[in-house]
Amino acid sequence: STVEYGLEVPFSIEYHDSIGSTNERARELATDGATDVAVLADEQTGGHGRLERPWSAPSGGIWVSIVCRPSIAPARAPLYTLAGAVATTRVAREAGVDAHIKWPNDVVVPVGEAGDYRKLTGILTEMEGETDRVDWIIPGIGVNANIDADALPPEATSIREEAGDVDRRRFVQRLLEAFDALRTDLEAIVPAWREHALTLGQRVRVERPAGEIVGDAVEVTPTGALVVETEDGRETVSAGDCEHLRPV
Ligand code: BTX
Question: Are the CB atoms for 231 and 100 separated by under 8 Å?
Fold first, then answer.
């Protein structure tokens, strides 16, 4: 079923009770030339993360993919992922959750002092374009909202578990407003990201396409890459999986 969600936001909303993946639907819309559409679902039956990893998306979550057509270079596209993480963190904090960002794309809740965390949100950004210009970009944001922990993987948490249920309509409205403000002010994204980052100051293990490195996470570049101080010098990583080992 496809109905208007009835929100006053700078995006048109396509809502589904159940869908395979909001990102896949958003890609279809993008390919057909749509822009500024947010595809929302109560449940996804085939949600996925990066590298084709499955993403659990039972009923009660906030599963949303946003079709954007910015005139930016592809190198700046990772900023859209960071913007999604910043926007989600802000709104989760408004809902009473102790949300922080783990580089590059997870919103997490810290557990203890050692850099451990449980995952509240994941973001999968897909993009198509030429070498000098993005055609479309789709940040797909998954928030474990009104879901019991036992319906999620063991490393996950939900807003229900951390702070009690939220009004999902209101959450999505605030999320889309916050995301829209950030995408029109790209320079503000990395400073805001740093403010909420759990990764900086951690010893990290990063798996990248070029292999694994271990070192101290010391900085994030203006395009959102992580700078890691290793025994062999500084490495700048633009994409990869990051594990926190301990505070530096
Ligand atoms: P990722 O590749 O960083 O993380 C995927 C991993 O996260 C999985 O291998 C699993 O260990 C863990 N995981 C799976 N489901 C959950 C969950 N609900 N909560 C916490 N951890 C989980 C992260 O990918 C990007 C996920 C994006 C999901 C959104 S939802 C809307 C849109 N549609 C879609 O199909 N994907 C995006």
Answer: no
**In terms of residues, how long is the chain?**
248
Distance 141 CA to ligand 1 centre (A): 9
Mutate which of 42, 43, 55, 155 for ligand 1 pocket (most atoms within 8 A of beta carbon): 55
Element (H, E) at 189: helix 189-196
The answer to whether residue 2 is domain-embedded is no
Helices then strands, each counted (H, E), the chain: 5, 12
Backbone phi and psi for residue 72, each to the nearest 5 degrees, phi listed first: -130, 160
Distance CA 222, CA 8 (A): 32
Q: Are residues 45 and 164 in the same domain?
A: yes
ipTM: 0.99
Instruction: Give the domain CATH number at 232.
Output: 2.30.30.100
Please tell me if the CB atom of residue 49 comes closer than 6 angstroms to any atom of ligand 1: yes
Q: Which of 227, 223, 222, 231 is nearest to 242 (CA)?
A: 227
Q: What is the pTM of this model?
A: 0.94
Count of the separate structural domains present in the chain: 2
Residue identified by tokens 């499955």 is 54
Among protein residues, the one with the nearest Cα to ligand 1's atom 19 is 156
Residue type, 213: I
Nearest to 40 by CA among 82, 3, 80, 90: 3
Classify the C-alpha dihedral 52-54-55-60 as positive or negative.
Answer: positive
Q: Does 174 lie in the same domain as 105?
A: yes
The mean pLDDT values, 10 residues at a time, for the chain of 248 residues are 57 95 98 96 96 94 97 91 96 97 93 86 94 94 97 97 95 95 94 94 93 96 93 93 91
